[in-house]
Amino acid sequence: MMLPPVDSSAILKLRQQILARNDALRAPLDQGVVLPGAEQPRFGAALDSALRQVSAIQDQASAAVTQYETGQSHDLASVMIARQKASLAFEATLQARNRLIGAYKDVMNMPL
Questions:
Q1: FRET pair for 63, CA 20 to 30 Å: which of 16, 46, 103, 104?
Q2: Can you give the pLDDT at residue 36?
Q3: Which pLDDT belongs to residue 39?
Q4: What is the rounded CA–CA span in Å between residue 97 and residue 27?
Q5: Whole-angstrom distance, CA of residue 56 vs CA of residue 63
Q6: Which residue did the predictor score with more confidence, 89 or 22?
Q7: Using CA atoms, how far apart are residues 25 and 38, in angstroms rounded to an integer?
Q8: Contact yes or no for 65/83 (Cβ under 8 A)
Q9: Any idea what the Cα angle at residue 106 is, between residues 100 and 107, rounded to 5°?
């Protein structure tokens, strides 16, 4: 089975839309404007949310593997995709942790 060719122009257009939306959302914060009722995001909450998302992705991959192994599913491709997503999510989390530890060490080694 051959995959259809990738339409790079559509991908680039979507990327531009995302960047434009990001700039529009960031503009009030860059100007020091705090929207009423908008709570500033906390680092701990963002980290907790990201870790929960990675855990959910890993749980989905485990469920897909279990379904395949027990014969409830015969779609090996979706199992492999789910496992690859879980692997990438874990690897990204590991890299973020390593960078955070490096930044912490840099701050701790700064002369006062």
A1: 46
A2: 59
A3: 64
A4: 29
A5: 10
A6: 89
A7: 12
A8: yes
A9: 90
Tokens of 33: 């404007």
> Exposed, middle or buried: residue 50 (CB in 10 Å: 0-12, 13-18, 19+)?
middle
Q: Which residue has the tokens 């060490």?
A: 105
In 3-state terms, the chain is what percent helix, strand and coil (to 5)? 75, 0, 25
State yes or no: pLDDT of 52 exceeds 80: yes
Separation of CA 64 from chain center = 20
Give the residue among 105, 89, 100 at the shortest CA–CA distance from 51: 89
Q: What's the CA dihedral at 107, 46, 42, 20 to 10 degrees?
A: 100
Query: What is the rounded (10 degree) CA torsion for 94, 96, 99, 101?
Result: -70
Q: Which residue has the tokens 């992705």?
A: 57
The H-or-E segment that residue 14 falls in is helix 8-30
